[in-house]
Amino acid sequence: MTGGATAEPAVLDAMELTSDPGLEARFAESAHQILSHLVSGGAALGWVEPPSRDEVTELLDHVFSAARAGDAALRAAYLSRRLVGFGYWLRYARPTHRPHADLEKIAVDAGAHGRGVGRALTAALIADARQAGIEVLTLDARGDNTNALHLYRSLGFTEYGRLPDFVAVGERRYDKVFCMLDLRRQG
């Protein structure tokens, strides 16, 4: 893996990540650092307080296990062997919902914003969903996360619902925005 300050991110899937012992050994810790830094800065990633190392490790173990079973995809973005972002989707567990998956998380290190990392991760996860036979990929985002919502729209997601003032962070309230990408309509 190569890359300098202006290089495109290398986007690895779960199998590629686990086949490199050096990257795999540092992945959970690096992911924890990214999430902690982002959540501390108020990022809309599902936590009010930064998650613990154990919580992130448990989450990633679950995603890796689901990916091995064909029920998830995980992507990690690297610049010069440094994790700068990751994301994953999980297939819905209910039998009636199995053709669908939820894009659970895209987290990009603040220092890598504006470098195409989020777009590269999301596009790779969409391709993984298409290859896995996912018909509809869903996600939700906090209404003030305008950059993420713009990215998702630019990749073909459409808003299908909104819960006004649903997310409570202290005294502040934000809309919860639901988006979907219908892969049946895209070939």
Q: Can you tell me about this structure?
A:
With 187 residues, this protein is of the alpha+beta class. The chain has a single domain (10-186), classed as Aminopeptidase (3-Layer(aba) Sandwich), CATH 3.40.630. The chain is built from five helices and seven strands, in the order βαααβββαβαββ. The longest helix is centred in the first third of the chain and has 20 residues, at 21-40. The model has no long low-confidence stretch (mean pLDDT 92). The chain has a seven-stranded mixed sheet, sandwiched between helices. The chain has helices at residues 14-18, 21-40, 53-68, 117-131, 146-154; strands at 10-13, 72-79, 82-91, 100-108, 136-142, 158-169, 172-182. Helix 2 crosses helix 3 (53-68).
Structural class: alpha+beta
Helix % is 25-40%
Looking at CATH, the homologous superfamily is Gcn5-related N-acetyltransferase (GNAT)
Beta content? 25-35%
Q: Give the CA-CA distance, first to last residue.
A: 32 Å
> Main sheet?
7 strands, mixed
Helix tally? 5
- Global Rg: 16 Å
What is the CATH T-level topology? Answer: Aminopeptidase
